[in-house]
């Protein structure tokens, strides 16, 4: 993966709606924000901070991470505007346990390198990120997520669905023929835009494929919820206790 091309393109996530719950009314329920907010949350791929803020408003302590420095900075700015408290510059369990509602932002050097100790988080929230990461790297990311999640903790991850793929396919087919693009490149263009030079890929997963993906790294399946006209499917997966 060309990390710099990816960073350049995904600055666009900072322009996504800052109130995602309003745009996708089913989003908060699919990701169980009320349940997540009872613990310490890792927000993987913070974008402009919508989910971070939704979780903090409910009382969660949130570590938000992204490979794009501008996205982390924007999330910090939005947290500042709402006058939430901040962690000191540490990732340690002791500091987090000693405080109430807090936030801490981290720019990732690589998608698959989470700079946190083992078993630190009660939950991980990841909305629409994993399917954009090259497949081999994505598997390493999921391994890292399993490592930093507490036994009994849960991963909430949204992946694009086969229904969205089917809707996009007629135009994708034309793009593949015109540009000699791979399927995932054409799908990324359809779902998240850009131009001929931008680096964006995307994949779609059926429910069974998503379950198999996460279970192959030790997670146990809890539930799967489709929403946004069946374009999105959020998987709830547990690290065994």
Stretches where pLDDT is under 50 for at least 5 consecutive residues are 94-99
Order of helices and strands: HHHHEHEHHEEHEHHHEE
State the strand order across the main sheet: 3-2-1-4-5-7-6
Number of helices: 11
Count of DSSP E strands? Answer: 7
Helix percent reads 25-40%
Please state the structural category.
alpha/beta
Main β sheet profile? 7 strands, mixed
Overall pLDDT = 91
Q: How many angstroms does the end-to-end distance come to?
A: 34 Å
Write the CATH homologous superfamily of the largest domain: Vaccinia Virus protein VP39
Going by CATH, the architecture of the largest domain would be 3-Layer(aba) Sandwich
Short account of what is shown:
With about 240 residues, the protein is an alpha/beta fold. The protein has two domains: about 5-160 and about 205-240, 3-Layer(aba) Sandwich (Rossmann fold); about 160-200. It has helices spanning about 5-10, 20-25, 25-30, 35, 50-55, 70-80, 95, 135-150, 160-180, 185-190, 205-215, and strands at about 40-45, 60-65, 105, 120-125, 150-160, 220-225, 230-240.
Defining traits:
single chain; 241 residues; alpha/beta; Rossmann fold; 2 domains; seven-stranded mixed beta sheet; 11 helices; 40% helix; globular
Walkthrough of the structure:
This protein has helices at 3-9, 20-23, 27-30, 33-36, 50-57, 69-81, 93-97, 135-148, 162-179, 183-192, 207-215, and strands at 40-44, 61-66, 103-107, 121-127, 149-160, 220-227, 232-238. It has 241 residues and is an alpha/beta fold. The chain has a 7-stranded mixed β-sheet, with helices on both faces. Helix 9 crosses helix 10 (183-192). The two termini are 34 Å apart. Residues 94-99 have low confidence and may be disordered.
């Amino acid at each position: 993966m060309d990390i710099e091309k990816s960073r350049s393109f995904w600055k666009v996530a900072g322009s996504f709606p800052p109130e995602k719950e309003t745009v996708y009314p089913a989003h908060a329920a699919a990701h169980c924000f009320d349940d997540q907010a009872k613990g310490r949350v890792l927000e993987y791929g913070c974008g402009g901070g919508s989910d971070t803020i939704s979780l903090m408003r409910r009382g969660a302590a949130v570590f938000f991470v992204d490979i794009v420095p501008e996205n982390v900075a924007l999330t910090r700015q939005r947290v500042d505007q709402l006058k939430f408290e901040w962690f000191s510059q540490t990732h340690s369990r002791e500091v987090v346990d000693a405080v109430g509602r807090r936030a801490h932002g981290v720019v990732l050097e690589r998608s698959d390198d989470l700079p946190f100790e083992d078993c630190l988080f009660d939950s991980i929230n990841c909305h629409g990120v994993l399917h954009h990461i090259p497949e081999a790297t994505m598997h390493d990311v999921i391994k890292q997520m399993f490592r930093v999640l507490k036994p009994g903790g849960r991963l909430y991850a949204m992946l694009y669905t086969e229904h969205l793929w089917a809707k996009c396919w007629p135009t994708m087919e034309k793009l593949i023929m015109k540009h000699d693009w791979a399927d995932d490149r054409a799908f990324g263009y359809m779902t998240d835009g850009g131009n001929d030079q931008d680096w964006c890929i995307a994949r779609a997963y059926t429910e069974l494929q998503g379950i198999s993906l996460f279970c192959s790294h030790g997670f146990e399946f809890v539930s799967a919820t489709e929403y946004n006209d069946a374009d999105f499917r959020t998987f709830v997966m547990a690290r065994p206790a």
